[in-house]
Amino acid sequence: MKEPVRKTKHPYLAGVVIACVVGAYVYLIASEEKFPEPGPNLVYDIRKFEEVDHVDTRFAEMAPIALNLEDARALEIDGEGNLYVAGKDAIEVFGPDGKSVSRIPVEGTPTCLEFTPDGRLLVGLEDHIDVLDGDRKRIATWGNFTERSMITAIAANEEDIFLADAASRCVLRLDPSGKVIGRIGETDEARDIPGLEVPSPYFDLAFDEDGELWVVNPGKLGLERYRSNGDIVTSWYRASLELDGFSGCCNPTHIAFNSKGRLVTCEKGLVRVKIYDVSTGFFEELVVGSRSFVVPQGVRDMIVDASDRILVLDPRKNAVRIFEQTETQLASHAKETE
Predict the structure, then answer these.
(1) Domain-located, residue 3
(2) Which sign does the torsion angle of CA 157, 140, 202, 195 carry?
(3) Rounded to two decimals, what is the model's pTM?
(4) For the chain, how many structural domains are there in total?
């Protein structure tokens, strides 16, 4: 994979200015979360920045999946194309046709979901993980990871399980039995690790097509790639109110990869779903912009399915919204690039 040169001269400082500009807007979203985000004393007019993403895209919105859940917060898809949506005290399962097929009881409100390669379903419940077997019965509970944890995302491969812990501001590396065997992303000048800044409970991670671990550094408005031993490989930050960057105090909020290895990102404050080249941080295109989301804007989760459809959990509509490229759009784009 092509890797950009590491830059350690604090290119993210512009994010501080941007946070001040949009902080009041973002605060509307933060009011319903567990801990507040920073916000200024002055209210700024950011309407002109909302117009930046009012452009046509190659993506169209399909029929949404309505939810019968309270406080829906997490999405996941299994190997058969079934969609799992987690809310208060339950996980609702939808078949590939979008119809509800089952409901799994849980205790509490999951913050994230992840399937392990051996078929277990890991259910993140703030400070602990419930492990469900193939019959979706709880077979274990993992906890006491740190003195204070808030698990916001999980990524699992054959060897390890990685937890994004927003409260501890690091990524926890677990073995398949749930034992913590490492911490990733903590400041270490000797290893050129700048440290993860997590101002709010938005902290995501994901594996790319090569199995490499990418971690959002939300306070620095960018991403960092790590080895499993905690060494940082590369990073890029995009602090900007323009369409090709990330704004606010902490973005992007969610990331995923499509089948072509492209990075799909989602933001809050001004909700935008975008696609980047992950190796360079080069902005490629907008999927959907802020005009498609009601105020106050926010997205609870975002994933990409096997057909490269982008699924967004919209709490204002209590629905999973689906965005995909139509054949007409794909053909039109092909002609434009000839």
Answers:
(1) no
(2) negative
(3) 0.85
(4) 1
> In the structure encoding, which two tokens stand for residue 264, read together?
């799909």
Q: Classify residue 305: in a domain, yes or no.
A: yes
Dihedral angle, C-alpha 26, 253, 55, 31, nearest 10 °? -20
Give the angle 73-257-239 at the CA atoms, nearest 5°.
Answer: 80
Closest CA to 125 of 172, 86, 155: 86
Give the domain range for residue 184.
Answer: 11-337
Count of Cβ atoms closer than 10 Å to residue 8 Cβ:
10
pLDDT in single tens digits along all 338 residues of the chain: 444 435 444 444 444 444 444 444 444 334 344 444 444 443 445 556 667 777 789 999 999 999 999 999 999 999 999 999 999 999 999 999 999 999 999 999 999 999 999 999 999 999 999 999 999 999 999 999 999 999 999 999 999 999 999 999 999 999 999 999 999 999 999 999 999 999 999 999 999 999 999 999 999 999 999 999 999 999 999 999 899 999 999 999 999 999 999 999 999 989 999 999 999 999 999 999 999 998 887 899 999 999 999 999 999 999 999 999 876 554 444 444 44
Please answer whether residues 60 and 329 qualify as being in contact, where contact means their C-beta atoms are separated by less than 8 angstroms.
yes
The two beta strands, 100-105 and 254-257, are unpaired
**End-to-end CA distance of the chain, in Å?**
26
List the CATH number of the domain containing 68. 2.120.10.30
Tokens (6 digits) for 84 = 């799992």
The answer to whether position 74 is within a domain reads: yes
In a domain? residue 246: yes
Three-class SS state of 19: helix
